[in-house]
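Q: Second attempt. The first request was missing the SMILES, so the protein and magnesium ion are both included now.
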Amino acid sequence: MKTNKGAYRFVIFTKTKVYKFATFHYVWGVLKNIPRMIKNGDSKFIIKELLWGFRGFGRGIAENKSEFSCWKRTRSPLLVPTYFGCGIVNVQKRQYGTTPTHEELQKLFAKLPPQTQFDLHLVESHCLEPGNFMQTKDGMVFVDYDDGTSPTAKQHPFTVFIEKWHRELKNTFIPRIS
Ligand SMILES: Nc1ncnc2c1ncn2[C@@H]1O[C@H](COP(=O)(O)OP(=O)(O)O)[C@@H](O)[C@H]1O
Ligand SMILES: [Mg+2]
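A: Got both inputs this time. The predicted holo structure:
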């Protein structure tokens, strides 16, 4: 079975769908280190480290929630549909295509109107990673469109960016179906 470990989510692929689980891997990473921390006399940090690990899990949940809410608000053809979301897991259509290179994306972004490009650079940089896009026969679509969880993300949510510049993004990313 194909899987992929994102920053805060663990993705399982079936033929037609992907399942994005908020991941426990940060918690697991801390648990594995506990014997070493005790040996080094760092046991006073265990609780702090565990809380940090659980925060990673919380971020996965927050990403799943904002991704599902972005889909429900926009239903945009720029986004791969999210069929179901409950925080712990999002179920999305499996999109086939190729992941663009950084250069290909930059060339595409450069075709957007100047004000759209300006706002694009205000959203959290995580949203613009090549792994979050897929080049398909219809054009470029987003497979990962959560708002992110940083202070930047709260100030400039990705969903708001998509809503504000929907027409311009469609004309540039998926011109054939605009
Ligand atoms: N709907 C999808 N169809 C096909 N591949 C996907 C889909 N969603 C995610 N992926 C692949 O899984 C990787 C990790 O998923 P992503 O949603 O980006 O998780 P994270 O938020 O943890 O970065 C992506 O970079 C992409 O390659
Ligand atoms: Mg991603």
